[in-house]
Amino acid sequence: MKRAFPILAVLTAILLACASYRALKIAPTDALQGDVYRIIYYHVPSAWTAFLLFFINFIASVQYLVGAKSSTRTAGNRIVMVVGVIAVILTFLPPVEHLLPAGMRPSAVATTVVLIVAFYFVIGWLFPRERLDMLAVTAAEVGVVFCSIVLVTGPIWARPVWGIWWAPGDIRLTSTLVLWLIYVSYLVLRRFSSSAQTQMLAAALAVFGALDVPLVYFSIWFFRTQHPQPVIGGGGSIDPRMLQTLLISWMAFLCFAFLLCWWRFRLEVFRRQVEEAHALESLLGAGPSTAPSLPLDRSSK
Amino acid sequence: MNAIKFLIAAYAATWLIHGGYILSLVRRFRKLEQQMKELGKENSNRRPA
Q1: Given an 8 Å threshold on Cβ–Cβ distance, is A157 in contact with B17?
Q2: Is residue A213 part of a domain?
Q3: Does residue A293 fall inside a structural domain?
Q4: How many of the other CB atoms lie within 10 Å of CB of B33?
Q5: Which of A36, A267, A271 faces B7 most closely, judged by CB atoms?
Q6: N or C, fewer C-beta in 10 Å, chain B?
Q7: Pairwise CB contact (< 8 Å): B10 & A152
Q8: What is the residue range of A160's domain?
């Protein structure tokens, strides 16, 4: 596994270089915005990657919460299965089908639901409970990094196109900022709380925080916002070269996010090992100093 | 020309954020390694001769 990391790092670097080259040279210039639209190749893949990471954090947190007892774990698995089956059936019912935004197919929604359910079980199967907590904090931290990029590149793009840095009250922009703040508070809670319940509290916060992700994603479908409507899956059209570049960029960012997560996960494992060593050390070191009057303690004589 | 400045700024900001995060990971790793070394030293000093 140690050899795989540098190989993957080199492949990711090549992919990122290729994506940047395509973004700056191959993709055609936008007729309305000119070259500044090329920010899309960093802004949108970063947003998608952040959403995916927050989703992983959500799944890991739910698995951590329900995994406290085998009975709750079984109940959780059954609830996920039942909710998944109901959601798939609902998407094909005509009244629900009409509620879906234009351009969104029921089969695509059903496939997404099946993938989410499958992902839930794969995560639970791959990671034992203690590692689920490590996965959750890893995904949240890397997700915050990508969400920060979204919040920085967005206003830089908005200034020349909209004429303003930020549209106050815009639901897409505000909900993204709220999402970022929720996950920053999650990380602050984990960093500064020393309570034994921190992991449970953080997992509960993550479950509520994840509710903001669909709001951010679907806000441009259901509300009128300054933010443009989606060009992929939203009924819009995009030049094939632009679409290819966008998808290659996302692949590159996904690989990069995977590398960062790998590294951060190892750091978390190491941090807990050091914490355990410190705890052991203090236990061993506490023996003579807490019992100075014992006959075995020669230093007190 | 002015738009290019924004494009460069966005790309530069992206890699600055990533670079800063990678640096923070490296620093945290080094700090933990240092702590582990100190613990190892303390342990070896405590062992009776």
Answers
A1: no
A2: yes
A3: no
A4: 12
A5: A36
A6: C
A7: yes
A8: 4-26+40-278
pLDDT at residue A249 tops 50: yes
User: Which chain B residues are within 8 Å of A267, Cβ to Cβ?
Assistant: 25, 28-29, 32
pLDDT over 60 at A14, yes or no: yes
Cβ-defined contact of B10 to A159 (cutoff 8 Å): no
Does A234 score more than 80 pLDDT?
no
Rounded to the nearest angstrom, the minimum Cα separation between B46 and chain A is 9
pLDDT in tens, A38-48: 999 999 999 99
A162 in Cβ contact with A171 (< 8 Å): no
Cβ <8 Å between A153 and B21 = no
Confidence class for position B27, pLDDT limits 50, 70, 90? very high
Q: How much of chain A, in percent, has pLDDT values that exceed 90? A: 43
Residue B22 Cα, gap to closest chain A Cα (Å): 8
| Within-domain flag for A300 | no
Q: Which of A171, A153, A151 is nearest to A214 (CA)?
A: A171
Q: In this model, does residue B31 exceed pLDDT 80?
A: yes
Q: Distance between CA A193 and CA A180 in Å, rounded?
A: 20
- A30 strand-pairing partners: A34
The interface predicted TM-score of the complex, written ipTM, equals: 0.89
Chain B neighbors of A38, CB-CB under 8 A: 7
Which residues, other chains included, contact A260 with Cβ-Cβ below 8 Å and sequence gap of 6+? A142, A145, B21, B22, B25
In a domain, A147, yes or no: yes
> Which range is most confident: A68-77, A122-131, A143-152?
A143-152
pLDDT at A35: 85
Which of A148, A162, A253, A289 to substitute to test the interface with B, most B CBs within 10 Å? A148
- In chain A, whose CA is at the least distance from the CA of B15? A149
- How many structural domains does chain A have? 1
The answer to whether A281 and B42 are in contact (CB under 8 A) is: yes
CB-CB contact of A38 with A282 (8 Å): no
